[in-house]
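3.2 Worked example (two chains)
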Amino acid sequence: MGKKWLGGAALLLMLAGCDHGDRRIGRPLPEPGPMAVAVLHDARGVEVGRATAQDVREALRVTVDVHGLPPGVHGVHIHSVGRCDPPGFASAGGHWNPFGTRHGTLNPAGVHMGDLPNLDVGTDGRATLAVNLPGGTMAGLLDSDGAAIIVHAGRDDMMTDPAGNSGARIACGVFVSD
């Protein structure tokens, strides 16, 4: 039994002396950058949620928190214009697509920067979503005409251009710098 313990101790000492090359251990993560907030309203002007966007480690972190929406799966996208004129929110333009790609994470020619995962709204009308968009930035989001976030009536199929057959726009919010 003593030899078994000594063998384990020797292995532990050898591993402790290894340099794994990760110099970040024990150092704090960089501070997140500025934040933009979008208050979502439905076509009647009723507040139904909030979204935030923030630069984090070479990506744009987007969070969505909704309430009072119809239960089911809904497509969610960032749109290229910071306007939300009801009732159809067409003023928000198309998806945020700075690289001129196709729509959808399942599309071999995709994905728009504004393509987000589907939002699964529960029977209580609530849902949350958080996603990092690699390569996205606050500067790109808040360009000269701003950006909006849209919740659609139906599920995004993650493939069909331009919006994944996700149906009508049922909620919209304009991103405003915090």
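3.2.1 Second chain
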Amino acid sequence: MIRRKSIFNFNHISPNLTDYELSELKELNKYYYKKYWLFKMTFRNLKLVSNIGSAALIVIACMTGAL
């Protein structure tokens, strides 16, 4: 039976990369992770504002409809 390699003991960085390429990949990873995080927070805030806005419109419609 063949044993599977544990992903926790596996280094995903190729040994063929130069130091410059390695630092460049780390910088790109940091940049795109920050960009992903900012888009995620923007979407979360937009969703919150949308929910509050729709709730406010429903309350206003109920108040004006009752008059």
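3.3 Remarks
The CA atoms of residues 46 and 57 lie 16 Å apart.
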